[in-house]
Inverse folding.
């Protein structure tokens, strides 16, 4: 039997983040990926590699959702970049139309290039419409601080735990907060709070620079492992190992950032 996982996320033209990373991650972990595009992001090499962001029409998103779920029995989904309140609204309607075993939310709060007012509207819509449907949410340091109402950056493990507990109180049972390069020290530390217990995942940092696609890979790996029947804690452990391996084998490009390589992970 082939395990399936579904993703609703944006396309990123360089291949280093978004939908492209999600499908590569699913494939590397032995899961058949099915997806719906929510937006298209094309970095602009003539303007400091800034975002060129184009939302997919809500009706087209709904059509993709209908086709994917008619063709396959999908019950585990990752939600990535949505980008506008209109997109969030249609994704909310789609998700609410059927039961899910797991909804994994990678809460991309700010789409670079948006006006502040539009970004705030998007953040509010995401919190109100998508976050309550999630069974697992995987915020990075900035996203966790924002969702939890804390000062960014979170600079201690206790602060990560506090943020995870605050986000859990918003309605998501499993919260994995990623410390990332914003957390001082030589260790890359993430924490999981499942509503009762805190689990800490730690490994040596691989440099102090951000690598594109790490967050997408992490959430997609959790999604793939959940699709295979893993518990959240075990899925997070695999996700961290995959990200660590992918950062060590990162891919260089003409962009100002390197990208994670999902193919570096070969399993335990």
């Amino acid at each position: 039997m082939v395990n399936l996982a579904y993703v609703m996320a944006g396309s990123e033209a360089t291949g280093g983040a978004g939908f492209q990373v999600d499908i590569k991650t699913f494939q590397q972990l032995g899961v058949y990926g099915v997806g719906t595009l929510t937006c298209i992001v094309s970095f602009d090499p003539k303007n400091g590699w800034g975002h060129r962001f184009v939302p997919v029409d809500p009706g087209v998103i709904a059509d993709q959702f209908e086709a994917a779920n008619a063709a396959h029995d999908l019950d585990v989904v990752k939600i990535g970049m949505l980008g506008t309140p209109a997109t969030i609204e249609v994704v909310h309607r789609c998700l609410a139309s059927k039961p899910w075993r797991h909804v994994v939310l990678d809460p991309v709060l700010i789409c670079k290039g948006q006006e502040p007012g539009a970004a705030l509207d998007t953040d509010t819509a995401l919190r109100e419409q998508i976050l309550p449907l999630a069974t697992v949410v995987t915020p990075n340091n900035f996203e966790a601080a924002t969702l939890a109402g804390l000062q960014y950056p979170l600079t201690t493990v206790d602060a990560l735990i506090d943020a995870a507990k605050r986000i859990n109180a918003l309605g998501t049972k499993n919260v994995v907060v990623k410390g990332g390069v914003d957390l001082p020290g030589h260790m890359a530390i993430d924490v999981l709070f499942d509503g009762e217990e805190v689990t800490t995942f730690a490994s040596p940092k691989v440099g102090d620079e951000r690598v594109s696609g790490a967050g997408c890979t992490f959430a997609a790996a959790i999604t793939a492992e959940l699709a295979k029947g893993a518990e959240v804690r075990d899925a997070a452990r695999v996700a961290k190992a995959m990200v660590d391996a992918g950062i060590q084998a990162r891919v260089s490009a003409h962009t100002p950032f390197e990208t994670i390589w999902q193919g570096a992970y070969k399993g335990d």
